[in-house]
Amino acid sequence: xxxxxxxxxxxxxxxxxxxxxxxxxxxxxxxxxxxxxxxxxxxxxxxxxxxxxxxxxxxxxxxxxxxxxxxxxxxxxxxxxxxxxxxxxxxxxxxxxxxxxxxxxxxxxxxxxxxxxxxxxxxxxxxxxxxxxxxxxxxxxxxxxxxxxxxxxxxxxxxxxxxxxxxxxxxxxxxxxxxxxxxxxxxxxxxxxxxxxxxxxxxxxxxxxxxxxxxxxxxxxxxxxxxxxxxxxxxxxxxxxxxxxxxxxxxxxxxxxxxxxxxxxxxxxxxxxxxxxxxxxxxxxxxxxxxxxxxxxxxxxxxxxxxxxxxxxxxxxxxxxxxxxxxxxxxxxxxxxxxxxxxxxxxxxxxxxxxxxxxxxxxxxxxxxxxxxxxxxxxxxxxxxxxxxxxxxxxxxxxxxxxxxxxxxxxxxxxxxxxxxxxxxxxxxxxxxxxxxxxxxxxxxxxxxxxxxxxxxxxxxxxxxxxxxxxxxxxxxxxxxxxxxxxxxxxxxxxxxxx
Length: 499
Prior knowledge:
Helices cover 32% and strands 24% of the residues. The chain is globular, with a radius of gyration of 23 Å. Strand 6 and strand 7 form a beta hairpin. The protein starts with 12 loop residues before the first helix and ends with a helix. The longest helix is centred in the middle third of the chain and has 15 residues, at 293-307. By secondary structure, the chain is α+β, with helices and mostly antiparallel strands.
């Protein structure tokens, strides 16, 4: 390895693994890290309920899935690479008995250790096993890893999730109970983390002091009341649970046979929910701020129509995430809405790599233009974001080939100019097209007749919430949790280090 600014891949293996994964990722969208689920429901089939909860959260991660259940002090677990429906079947679920469970569906890119990184992370403690599912990313993993190795913990994965689990174990083994040990451990963790944690005594739901990643609480209609935790309300809906409230920033909820208790483990919490959860990541039928995200995304489209009007014959969205904003744009502008692209919803991530020629036309694997609808039309195409611009350019070319007269692109978020360190897989800054090019230059590269992004102010105003309660660092570079310099520098490793 060649050291770069005193940072090497050997010194920071968890950073290096994430960088290699990000470098090899071919998606042109920001990628969410995970979906998490937790349930305390005696006399219920918790494994099957968790399975369906993860099924609803599949959009948050498609490469590995896992469930851990507890029956008394005994833990049962199953996790593997693949979609939820591929990892589990009836026979496997029957081998996961218990009264409580946590589950995880993960976004991970390529790499040799993918299976070992599947969650939940299960570790042993003085009080028994704990199983932890994590959504987010820590930014102080170098320090935390060093502390754990010094205390003789044998880390077997490259995930910060395992480090959080061992940090709890470290406190519990020193004499703390589950709640005290967990709260001490969380104070050592800096960054974004929403967690569901199962123990023999109960289930925890936890959010970092800024609540960057979402986590909600639901109840099952039964006596006594059973509680459910999920990344989004769609994970509650699928099993018939009723949304109760969000887990608050800096809050720990503890669910046992006596009910639900709340502990504010961090006293200086300040809500900074990732705005991309509202724009793109979360399912449109999930509730945030007492409305579906479909409603918010329609308002984004209406705001775009007001900010960046253009004459055209047809408005359509890039399926599926661009559709609500396209409908809103159509309603506000009076321009007809229609379908211009058909999505093959059976195409997911694949381990079979196409040839270069296939890759160059790969957009047609997922999206195919309706030529007779588009021919000769001036079209407005709505998308939620542009990262590198590679997919957008292929899409525009496909529309040109279909015979459109003009292509006007509207993006329902501001330009992405900074990488995320809190659980979204984004490129290094110099690979983000908006970080190195003006809007006019991007339009020229994409070969569109016009391009406009939603303003940062318009995006936040449209939430109808306190505009200071969101993290929008990927648009501004203002990170709510300080990013250590070695983590920032690590984004440059792949360009300068030969592995």
